């Protein structure tokens, strides 16, 4: 039987914040509303994480050592976790294909409870309507860079992708948290990842239960107070 393929809505800018505002308001969110994520927002999140931004060269939204692009993305969608127009997206584990900007159903069902158990029972993994999982195929990078690729480049690249997801989520009114604590093999089985993939991050996505309020004045007065303190202590030296 053919696998279910969801062609995600084409890329349409819809972020509501400037980059520096998203940086200011980015926080790790561990409480979500019981509200589905619109497929247009999921589409933009995945593209911002690892979609193509310079197709002729094969370059993507996140930088990669030697353009080896060792990462893969999965989405675990819970029951009523994502909405496409009037319809909920079939719950399951999906693999993201950047070239066709699509999701391929790998395993059916609401897998959030399994993912939560694999993630040391961190509540936010169970509560979020969906999670993005970043996996790494180390071989793609280590075949060029050896140990340095494994120890440095691959984990660095996961950080780049993770930060893009954090910032896009924030600018779309969503929230996330980078979850690094989990049982690798257990999570691989939940999403049904390929043998050569290692799960690196689970990033639950959802609407924050409490909005983040912060402004630049608050940050600037913090800086100014510290400057005054520093000047005083220099005078007393
Ligand atoms: C490598 C890494 C692993 C992390 N793992 C977890 C985790 O397993 N669970 C969790 O709730 N938060 C996790 N976090 C999020 C941190 O707790 C969070 O970034 C930190 O408390 C600072 O808060 P902020 O992100 O709101 O600035 C992780 C962050 C990083 C960078």
What report would you give on this structure?
The chain has seven helices and twelve strands. The chain has one domain: NADH Oxidase (3-Layer(aba) Sandwich), CATH 3.40.109. The strands form three sheets. A seven-stranded antiparallel β-sheet has the order 1-9-8-5-10-12-11, with helices on both faces. It has a three-stranded mixed β-sheet with strand order 2-6-7. Strands 3-4 form a two-stranded antiparallel ribbon. The model has no long low-confidence stretch (mean pLDDT 97). Helix content is 39%, strand content 22%. The protein has 237 residues and is an alpha+beta fold. Bound molecules: flavin mononucleotide.
Keyphrases for this structure?
alpha+beta; 237 residues; 7 helices; binds flavin mononucleotide; 3-stranded mixed beta sheet
Architecture blueprint of SSEs:
Elements: E1 5-7, H1 19-25, E2 37-38, H2 39-50, E3 52-54, E4 59-60, E5 71-77, E6 82-84, E7 87-88, E8 92-97, E9 102-108, H3 112-118, H4 123-127, E10 130-136, H5 138-171, E11 175-176, H6 184-191, E12 198-206, H7 216-235
Parallel strand pairs: 2-6
Antiparallel strand pairs: 1-9, 3-4, 5-8, 5-10, 6-7, 8-9, 10-12, 11-12
Short description:
The chain has helices at about 20-25, 40-50, 110-120, 125, 140-170, 185-190, 215-235; strands at about 5, 35-40, 50-55, 60, 70-75, 80-85, 85-90, 90-95, 100-110, 130-135, 175, 200-205.
């Amino acid at each position: 039987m053919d696998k279910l393929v969801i062609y995600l809505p084409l890329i349409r800018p819809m972020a509501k914040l400037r980059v520096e505002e998203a940086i200011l308001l980015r926080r790790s969110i561990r409480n979500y509303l019981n509200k589905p994520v619109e497929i247009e927002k999921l589409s933009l999140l995945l593209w911002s994480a690892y979609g193509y931004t310079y197709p002729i060269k094969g370059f993507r939204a996140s930088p990669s050592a030697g353009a080896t692009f060792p990462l893969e993305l999965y989405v675990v969608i819970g029951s009523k976790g994502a909405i496409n127009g009037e319809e909920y997206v079939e719950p399951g584990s999906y693999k993201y294909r950047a070239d066709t900007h699509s999701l391929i159903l790998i395993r059916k069902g609401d897998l959030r409870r399994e993912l939560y158990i694999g993630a040391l029972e961190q509540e936010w993994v169970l509560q979020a309507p969906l999670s993005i999982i970043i996996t790494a195929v180390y071989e793609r990078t280590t075949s060029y860079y050896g140990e340095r690729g494994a120890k440095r480049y691959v984990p660095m690249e996961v950080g780049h992708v993770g930060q893009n997801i954090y910032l896009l989520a924030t600018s779309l009114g969503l929230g996330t948290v980078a979850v690094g604590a989990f049982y690798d093999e257990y999570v691989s089985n939940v999403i049904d990842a390929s043998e050569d993939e290692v799960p690196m991050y689970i990033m639950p996505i959802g609407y924050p239960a409490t909005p983040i309020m912060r402004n630049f004045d608050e940050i600037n007065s913090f800086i100014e107070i510290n400057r005054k303190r520093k000047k005083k202590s220099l005078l007393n030296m």
